[in-house]
């Protein structure tokens, strides 16, 4: 692997007697889509929170784009391009689809280019927003109110809002949750198109989606990584099959 974009070393976290992250060491490649799977309560969302800075670690080191960010707060990590989509992004219901993305672009602009000349700003933000909508397949809906979008399209809109922050790594926490088959397929197609352009960490329960999308998969059980490898390696791993015993949709 070339230099990883994200390195996790010996991450541990307990809530009282409950160890939710147990000595997790992982590297995320600079252009890989890395899925994290595991049974309910395995500690996947907690791990994402430890990467973004929302969940403070007991022990461990997080290195992002070559910099030790272990002690940096959430906003400082976000400014460096560590971008979480879902569960934090707020879609503004009174705005159109395009306005939502342009507003996200403006918010990013304000924090990173404070002295940019005002004149060229609006057109530039608009172009950036349109390009992001193109990438997620929502350009035809740009002028519609955000509230008119389906649940699946709203997830796509949230990805467009994440893209305008110029992410160096996208963290996607259960993007397919609550989606029907058709909506899932649309989102798989969007993520497939983004794959290779942005490194991504994907936490997801939909195994069919995960095994098609991921370059590598890590399996978390009781806060520990019990397996990490290509989809084929993970599928064949006896410890993984044991952990998923009885779950018929395991790919
Ligand atoms: N703030 C907290 N205080 C106490 N326990 C917590 C806290 N946050 C999470 N936990 C516990 O940590 C464990 C891991 O939770 P987490 O949400 O990270 O799992 P998960 O793998 O994302 O689960 P799911 O797939 O169901 O979303 C669970 O047992 C949960 O109850």
UniProtKB/TrEMBL annotation:
GO terms for cellular component: plasma membrane. Pfam families: ABC_tran, BCA_ABC_TP_C. Keywords: ATP-binding, Nucleotide-binding, Transport. InterPro entries: AAA+_ATPase (IPR003593), ABC_AA/LPS_Transport (IPR051120), ABC_transporter-like_ATP-bd (IPR003439), BCA_ABC_TP_C (IPR032823), P-loop_NTPase (IPR027417). Residues 6-247 form the ABC transporter domain. PROSITE patterns: ABC_TRANSPORTER_2. CDD domains: ABC_Mj1267_LivG_branched. SUPFAM superfamilies: P-loop containing nucleoside triphosphate hydrolases. The keyword Secreted does not apply. This is ABC transporter ATP-binding protein. It comes from Phreatobacter aquaticus.
